[in-house]
Design goal:
The chain has helices at residues 6-13, 19-31, 40-65, 67-73, 78-81, 88-104, 108-126, 136-159, 167-186, 192-198, 203-207, 209-233, 237-259, 261-271, 273-290. The chain is mostly helical. The longest helix is centred in the N-terminal third of the chain and has 26 residues, at 40-65. The N and C termini lie far apart (56 Å).
């Protein structure tokens, strides 16, 4: 059987998508308030797990089970284009999942549990019988939880010696996971036609493009406002002001995005989402300062 080129394997694993969970893992490390001395080997393992392993596994799984949709929306992808022949895509997805579990075992009970849940969500998102991505509400929730919340929890757990992170850190991880649901919706605007043909009820398909765009914006903003309120309650006013300022900038960009959602979803991802992730780190440093 023909083998795929390494360039096709790399494209299947989509390195560009690894940054969000790696960043969220770093936020969990910072939020723990624990000194990093002596923990760098575990931190590096955690970063490897969050991005090049768990996230890459999710991308491979998604590409395999989305190969028919991609044949319509993105025929240049490795599997529909034939550059990933036979069942190589499925084999790589399984191999990367098993490798991720092996690495997660080095991170203690909570680190392993977070990695396991992330992988289960990755398969549930794309693979039958659940295939959560068939419904934009459930699928985007799974992605947001995997990419942001679980990666944050893993980072905090590593710093806590494999124990459960503190409740404030878990609260922020959950809120940013909910907010990431809106960010996941941004990815759906480019594939409305293919999703409609294949029966995938993304939010733009379910609600219409304009309503889905407004919903995504509300879902992105409201949890961040809750974060601001919590930072005030935790007596971190400067951090709260910084997060509020980042929210205000996002609102300015959202106004332009809402004028042409389909055309500007990628544009907003490039300019608005970085403000969101900066806010995550600001919030993490707020917890470190309150520790």
């Amino acid at each position: 059987m023909a083998r795929p080129a390494l360039s096709a394997v790399a494209e299947l694993l989509k390195p560009i998508t690894w940054f969000p969970p790696m960043w969220a893992f770093g936020c969990g490390v910072v939020a723990s308030g624990v000194a990093t001395e002596g923990r760098w080997p575990l931190i590096l393992v955690g970063v490897l797990l969050a991005g090049p392993l768990v996230c890459a596994s999710s991308q491979a799984v998604n590409d395999w089970f989305d190969r028919h949709v991609d044949a319509i929306n993105e025929p240049q992808r490795p599997i529909p284009s034939g550059r990933m022949p036979g069942r190589w895509g499925l084999g790589i997805a399984i191999l990367w999942t098993l490798l991720s579990l092996v690495v997660a075992a080095f991170l203690g009970p909570w680190g392993f549990a977070a990695g396991l849940v992330g992988l289960l969500l990755a398969w549930a998102y794309s693979a039958p019988p659940l295939r959560l991505k068939q419904n934009g509400w459930w699928g985007n929730a799974a992605c947001g939880l995997c990419y942001e919340g679980l990666a944050w929890v893993t980072g905090a757990a590593v710093m806590a010696g494999g124990a459960m992170p503190e409740l404030r850190s878990l609260a922020l991880a959950l809120l940013y996971s909910v907010s990431a649901h809106g960010i996941m919706t941004l990815n759906d605007f480019k594939s409305v036609e293919g999703d409609r043909q294949m029966g995938i009820a993304s939010l733009p398909v379910q609600l219409g493009v304009q309503s889905a765009a407004r919903t995504a914006c509300w879902v992105m903003i409201l949890p961040q406002l809750c974060v601001t309120g919590l930072l005030v309650a935790w007596q971190q006013p400067l951090h709260a002001v910084a997060v509020a300022a980042l929210i205000a900038l996002q609102l300015v960009l959202m106004r332009r995005f809402l004028q042409q959602p389909s055309e500007r979803a990628v544009w907003y991802s490039g300019f608005g989402v970085p403000l969101f992730v900066i806010g995550m780190m600001v919030s993490a440093f707020a917890l470190r300062g309150a520790a």
